[in-house]
């Protein structure tokens, strides 16, 4: 028979070891929890990766990052965290770690507005070469200094095109006397005025009613936006002039980024590059599909010749460039830098 005292000592020791093991496990779990970080990724498009450029980009970003790191990515699509301006503000404050936005970027980094100079890019592939090259890298670095937001990669919202319900547009002369809804952004007002149309700033939510009631004769948007929102049902004519190429910016709070390990930074950067290209691919698919669908449903679509596009550019660019030079001041050098980069990529 075992000594009762000896048994009590062994039992006490066992409890101590068990308690130590439990405490060690708890501390390890707390440390792991502290090290595990969550990336909130916000954008304003639908989540459906098959139809949404930002949705596709966000989902593949999440899959890559979570598959190759211990980071967790929470997606907030369809404006769940607010509009683009609000998303940028959240990223600057570190409340949302990654956002994917387009037009809102030029509001916090005015130099990004040079990308909206009409008829700058003759094709998407030239835009990709410029944005993925030295110019895009330099613009990203400049905007990082201005905002504290690191541009991980560029995506694509697409080329914007004119539609109207009055007549086919083949030249700037065809735009005279027509009222076009534009975004409440001075650059777009200057562009349409330069082309001879009458720009009418109207909020996006009011556009369908403005078209239905004849407040405006036409509007301008990427093909996918026109088709997916039923604007082709309110407009008879579309001109594929591609007057503005809209880029998406995949942004991350640099404070958050610098807190990641080198290995995590590499994966996040890679995931963003893949995400940007995924968004571009979905956008290209949506444009091609959209053109076919709007025609099948009765819309008349015209593709201008190179000479006709040149005539549009001759009218639209001077007013916009003059406006931007006045707004940018010393940063107007970005206009010249962009033109040089486009020229190099086009040759």
TrEMBL record:
Give the protein's recorded name.
DctP family TRAP transporter solute-binding subunit
The cross-references to InterPro entries, in alphabetical order and at most eight, read: DctP_fam (IPR018389), TRAP_DctP (IPR004682), TRAP_DctP_sf (IPR038404)
Question: Which residues, if any, are the signal sequence?
Answer: 1-36
Q: Name one Pfam family in it.
A: DctP
Kindly state which keywords UniProt assigns to this record, in alphabetical order. Answer: Periplasm, Signal
Q: Upper taxonomic classification of the species?
A: Bacteria, Pseudomonadati, Pseudomonadota, Alphaproteobacteria, Rhodobacterales
Q: Where in the cell is it found?
A: Periplasm
């Amino acid at each position: 028979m075992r000594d009762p005292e000896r048994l009590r000592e062994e039992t006490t020791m066992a409890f101590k070891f068990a308690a130590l093991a439990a405490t060690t496990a708890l501390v390890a779990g707390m440390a792991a929890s502290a090290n595990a970080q969550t990336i909130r990724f916000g954008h304003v498009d639908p989540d459906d990766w098959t139809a949404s450029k930002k949705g596709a980009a966000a989902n593949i970003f999440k899959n890559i990052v979570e598959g190759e790191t211990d980071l967790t990515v929470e997606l907030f699509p369809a404006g769940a965290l607010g509009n683009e301006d609000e998303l940028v503000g959240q990223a600057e404050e570190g409340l949302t770690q990654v956002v994917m936005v387009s037009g809102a970027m030029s509001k916090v980094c005015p130099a990004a507005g040079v990308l909206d100079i009409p008829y700058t890019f003759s094709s998407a592939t030239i835009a990709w070469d410029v944005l993925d090259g030295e110019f895009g890298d330099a613009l990203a670095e400049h905007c990082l200094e201005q905002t504290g937001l690191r541009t991980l990669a560029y995506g694509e919202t697409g080329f914007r095109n004119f539609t109207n319900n009055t007549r086919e547009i083949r030249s700037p002369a065809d735009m005279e006397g027509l009222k076009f809804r534009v975004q409440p952004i001075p650059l777009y007002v200057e562009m349409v005025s330069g082309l001879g149309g009458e720009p009418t700033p109207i909020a996006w939510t009011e556009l369908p009613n403005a078209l239905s009631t004849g407040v405006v004769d036409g509007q301008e948007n990427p093909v996918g936006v026109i088709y997916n929102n039923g604007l082709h049902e309110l407009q008879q004519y579309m001109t594929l002039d591609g007057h503005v190429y809209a880029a998406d910016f995949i942004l991350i709070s640099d404070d958050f980024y610098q807190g990641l390990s080198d290995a995590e930074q590499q994966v996040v950067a890679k995931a963003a590059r893949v995400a940007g290209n995924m968004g571009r691919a979905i956008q290209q698919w949506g444009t091609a599909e959209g053109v076919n669908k709007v025609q099948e449903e009765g819309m008349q679509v015209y593709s201008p010749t190179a000479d006709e596009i040149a005539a549009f550019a001759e009218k639209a660019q001077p007013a916009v460039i003059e406006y931007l030079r006045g707004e940018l001041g010393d940063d107007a050098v970005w206009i010249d830098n962009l033109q040089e980069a486009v020229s190099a990529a086009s040759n």
